[in-house]
Design goal:
single chain, mainly alpha, 3-stranded antiparallel β-sheet, about 35% helix, globular
Amino acid sequence: MSQPTINACSQINCPFFENKPSSGGCPRYSAPGQCHLTTLFEFETDGNWLFLVEESELNSIKKVNDRFLNKDKASRKQLQQLRTKKPRKLELPNPQSVSPTGTDAQLQPEGLL
């Protein structure tokens, strides 16, 4: 038997694959074996995504996935949140706006004054 080399998540254009976090795994399921597609199709996994050998199964997998996502409210809600989530910008204080609270003498270790 051949090694699974087709990333099913990518090939069926799963919206969770398209909105993947930088950590690399599926944002919907913490483990690929929890994916709804694993109840109907057989996959191998790398710990993040689902892989298969037979490209001929992709059309059926895509139809099942699209139908599920259209009906599953939790998935639709999570996708909407992923799509609207914008990276937060880290705000650092301006060094010139920070006023010293004491004199240089107060910052010296005891015994050096």
